[in-house]
Amino acid sequence: MSKQDPKMNLTEGPIARKLLLFSLPVLYGNVLQSLNGTVNSIWVGKFLGESAFAATSNANNVMFLMLSSIFGIGMASTIMIGQSIGSGDIRQAKRVVGTSTLFFFTLSMFVAAAGFFLSPQILGWMNTPPDAIEMANAYLRIIFMSMPFMFCFSLIMTILRGAGDSKTPFKFLVMAIILDIVLNPLLIFGWGPIPAFHISGSALATAISQLVALAAILLSLYRKKHFLRITRDDRRLLRYDREIIGSLVKKGVPMGLQMIVVSTSALAMINLVNRFGSEATAAFGAAMQLSSYIQMPAMAIGGAVSSFAAQNVGAGKWDRVHRVTWLGVVFNFVMTGVLVVLIYLFNRQALGLFLPEGRAIEIGMTINTITLWSFVIFGITFVVSGVVRSTGAVMVPLLITFLALWCMRIPLSYYLADSYGLDAVWWSFPIGFTAGSLLSVAYYFWGNWKKASMLTYGAPKS
């Protein structure tokens, strides 16, 4: 595949079918990654005890923060590659690949080294329980050592999605997940000549699975002669291109900050709910577990429309960009809506997967009744923001997220809690989500996002 596969060309052909087929592997990958985390947590929690579970929970929070920090930079490279391919400039796309690869590898080595030596301090800052510190440190140090594999594997998957291919990343993600699930009990408990590594075995399973998947996907891409591979003749593209690195940082950091704004607002909500006792906290935790799955279609569609729109922005096909937007909104309504209806039909049974019968389930049912439908509205923000970001307009989506969460939903939830009690808190979700969606749609119609650009030359024009 020395040239781009026509099936991966997102600037031609029927949009609806291609958008759906592109979104589904991303969605399935998100679901499998969540299930993988759940299975691994069961091995540790059930067989190594509460202290071990607390250790991995604290360490995984650090890992999530590290991966979140590079999410935006990965998305920025995806958009630049998509725009370059859409404009027919494969050389520029490979230039982005070369600089992004070198930049990511350097960044990952720095994170790995700093994290390895600072992991005890990091766990101390997180107030990790004393009985879990030693295990968490052993686990986290191995995770940090595997960061170069994780970062590079993540980058390759984003590059392929920017090139219009979501199936190949999914195949190798499945490989990594299956390997991780198989290796977890094997390395935790040992078998035959393989010693028992206990909690370190869980981290080793993650590291090995990421390394094997990285090697396998690279071997596959070079064997198939993928048109974006860096060949011997392209070695000079493996350099620190100041313009591209500037765009990766300038455009990527705000996208990464969006994730941090969302995650910190979730911590603020947990802090508030903790006031009402362990039953309320357990109910909120169970409801959020369910909502995390409900958000997955919107997240997958948001990523898909960003890749779609980026290629069409590069090609100057703004009519297709707008059609992608509205098809993405429709897909979100259908896919997210179906999941919401299913949870409403089996509300008690769904919460019963996480909670024993009692008051916590009643609280959880109230949370779901008030909040679940609003995640359909929240999905509009994912889709519209994905399209807007495809031009390089990243600051306004960050500002909208901050306004909707930290200037509206969080203050409103605390006010409702103090004035009307626990049940009123949940209304902050639909109100905050609606505000965010209205602001996003308003910016889409009347903002100047079409004039944004990822690189200083070749700025897309409407």
Automatic annotation (TrEMBL):
Pfam families linked to this entry: MatE
Any one GO molecular function term: xenobiotic transmembrane transporter activity
Annotated membrane topology: Multi-pass membrane protein
Segments crossing the lipid bilayer: 20-43, 63-85, 97-118, 138-160, 172-191, 197-222, 326-346, 366-387, 394-412, 424-446
Cellular localization per UniProt: Cell membrane
InterPro entries reported for this sequence: MATE_fam (IPR002528), MdtK-like (IPR048279), Membrane_Transporter-Flippase (IPR052031)
Protein's name according to its UniProt entry: MATE family efflux transporter
